[in-house]
Structure formats: structure tokens, C-alpha cells
Amino acid sequence: MKLIYTVIAMLAVSSVAMAQTSAVYGDANGDGVVSSTDVTVIYNYLLFGDMTYYSTSDVDGDGSITSGDVTVVYNILLGIIPGGDNHEYVDLGLPSGTLWATMNVGASTPEECGDYFSWGETTPRGGEEPYWNNYQWSNGSRFNKLINYCPNSQYGYNGFSDNLTELEPEDDAATVNWGSNWQTPSKTQMEELRTKCTWTWTTSNGVKGYRVSKNGKSIFLPVTDFYSTGQIYYTGFLGYYWTRTLHETTSYQAYYLYFYSSSNLKCTYGNRYSGFAVRAVRKQTH
Asked: 188 by DSSP, 3-state: which?
């Protein structure tokens, strides 16, 4: 406890709350960096009930502000875990409050496709054709006998015996690659984006895609196409974006957003081994 008060006494905390416009893992005060000040603001809440940075102090994303958040910051400062994964997001003013990332997982600009993942895999696809025989949920350590082939399966993500209908954090490409504040959108979140926003087919920095707008703000979803037969099929017109939601009755399929040029925008479902892009959302804690 003496150490706690010493840290608080040594560090000054700004009384002006800062608007968080990017997600930096471990950044409790929203200033864009992880520093000892972030330890202080968490302690100020825990010890004194200071609400100045309440909305950003849950750095581990578990829904509450505890000593665990302090541990995360310390581990980042000590280099034990990575931090500072600065991924920007946009508040489109959606009814659910969902915050959407400005670029795909694996991309460095909004126009890049980023990486291609099979549903439930966290390592990008590459080098071989995605199919059941090399899909981690039907082969190897995460063996999943498909419900159509083996109705008595007790393995993961069959939607029946295990009651898992959405990706767990350890199997979510967005969470594993970007940190605990992020996840692949659910079907419900993707449908909300599709139906509550204005979608405009356009070109951004030479790349075709959709400008998705609401309340004067927007994100850009570039054409992505898909990964198959050991290569990326890219025509410059198609878009495939995973959700984290398993199909209700056909467990070997999961939902994704699909578009073809300026038409046929819909949420549909397909084989889980397919290599699609992921546009992450901020994990909600309410």
C-alpha cells in the first residue's frame, strides 16, 4: 500500500478528460501512449473514486476496473506483454453503440485488404488451399467432426452439443491479433451496420469499396475477395468479411458480409474454412 501512495504522490494527473479516438492497449487516460500516468489514474479511481478517466480505465476489457488493469499497464511498461497497439475506431452513432475499426485486421491503411482468416483461426491463411483437411477445427489439436458427418460430436463449435454459437476470445482473429479490446463483429452487429448506415460504392486512393456513413462519420470497406486454392482471388469487385457468429443449423458454416460491386449487399453464410477478411469492432462491456 505504501508503494501505491508513493506512485500517486510522484505522478501528476491532468484534470481534463481526453477524448479517446484510438485504442491503445493499456492506455487508461486516453492520451495515446502507455506510461506510469496510466497506473496513477487507475489507482485514483480505485482509492479515491476519481471518475475523470472512468470510461477508459478498464484496459483489460473485462467490464470492471480492478487491480488487474494496473497489472496490465505494469506488464506493458516492463515489456512482459505487448502494448501500444494503436488501432483507430469510429463511433457511427449506431443504436448498439458499436465502435468500428477504420481498417481490416492485418492492414496498415483503410484501403488494404489485410489478412485472410478461416473462421475460428487466428493465423492468416497462406501457402495451401483452405479446405476441411487443413482447417484447424476439423483436423489436429482442435479437431471438430462436423455435425453433418458425426452427430454425436463433442468437440468445439458444432453449435449443438457444446452450445458455442460465437467465437471464444482465444479463437477470434481480431482479439488475438489486436488485443482484448477487440473482436470480430457478430452477425447482429454486421446487420446493424448494413441496415442502419448509408452505403456508397466509391473509390478511395485507387481502391474500390464501400463508404459506410452515418451521422457525418464513416468507415471504408475495401474489396477483399477471398483466399482459396492456395492463392488470393481478387477481381476488384467482391467483398467478404467474417462475423463471429456460427450458423444456427449448419455448424460447418458461419455468417459473413458479402457484396458484389454496388449490388447484392447482404449477410449470408459459407464454409468456415474459407479465407475472408476481418473488420474488428471494439469489445462492448455493457
From this structure: helix
In tens, the pLDDT along 69-102 reads 888 888 777 766 555 556 888 999 999 999 999 9
Q: Cα–Cα distance between 199 and 211 in angstroms, integer?
A: 6
| Helix H or strand E encompassing 47 | helix 36-48
Q: Indicate the residue type of 171.
A: D
Per-residue HEC secondary structure of 159-178 comes to: CCCCCCCECCHHHCHHHHHH
Question: What residues contact residue 19 under an 8 Å CB cut-off, 6+ apart?
Answer: 30
Q: Which domains does the chain have, with CATH numbers?
A: 2-85 (1.10.1330), 90-282 (no CATH)
What number is the average pLDDT over the span 132-147? 56
CB-count burial class (<10 Å; 0-12, 13-18, 19+) for 164: middle
- Strand segments, DSSP code E, in the chain are 22-23, 87-91, 99-101, 182-183, 198-204, 207-214, 217-222, 226-228, 231-233, 238-246, 253-260, 263-271, 281-282
In angstroms, rounded to a whole number, what is the distance separating the alpha carbons of residues 198 and 95? Answer: 15
- Cα 43 to Cα 45: distance, rounded to the nearest angstrom: 5
| Number of neighbouring beta carbons within 10 Å of residue 173 | 30
